[in-house]
Amino acid sequence: MNPAERNLRYYAALGLAAEASHLAQGYFGRRETLGTTMKGAQDWLTVADGAVEAFLRERLSQLFPGDTVIGEEGGGEASDAVWILDPIDGTANFAHGDRNWCISIGFLVDRRPEIGVVAAPALGELYAARRGGGATLNGAPIKVSGGADIARASIELGWSTRVAAERYIEVIGRTYAAGAAVKRSGSGTLGLCHVADGSSDAYAELHINAWDVAAGIVIAGEAGATINDFFAGTGMAKGNPILCCTPGLAEELRRITGIV
After folding, report:
1. Least confident of 20-34, 65-79, 155-169, 182-196
2. Which of 20, 40, 79, 137 has the greatest number of beta carbons closer than 10 A?
């Protein structure tokens, strides 16, 4: 894919994120419109998830008919040029009126993340990056904190029902024992973005899906983060662990979390 084709997709993703944000905001805070159901334990689904993904799929098929799409709700198949979508990441937050949720639009070429756009409209935030072009928040350049002292670090640890609670609690205990502050916000996508803008020093999760990280990996990577090879093996289809952090904490966090 040549630079012009990639740039066209980047600017298209920015425009689609703005439109999708408007659509999602129409549902947010109006619980009577959400039609909330559960896909599993603490795995929330709302009407907004389906509406936003359907909108993005339709637009992308019109704009780039040769590309494929994988979405959290509708699935899909990978190809050499694939969009990976999470229509509402942080659906539990969304359904409860918590503003910490976002729309994630990622684009990969030959399994390599190329474009990431993450819109958090309830927070007034738009993160964007393309490989080799740096990362921005609301148009301004961002970078990781640069912290290297675990005893001063703020670390977010995401939780997945695919991992035994005991294993998650063990990692929390090790992180606290190392002296770090631990938090969890309920959106893995925004967790990566917060590493990118320096408001967190690290984000780790023992299992996460591709749609949660496809865009955030580009944004955090372009902001200077160290990130494990999430798309190795079956990461795109089945998910993998994620470790994203400021470089000075990488070695210690690999030891603490066991994520390499």
Report:
1. 20-34
2. 20
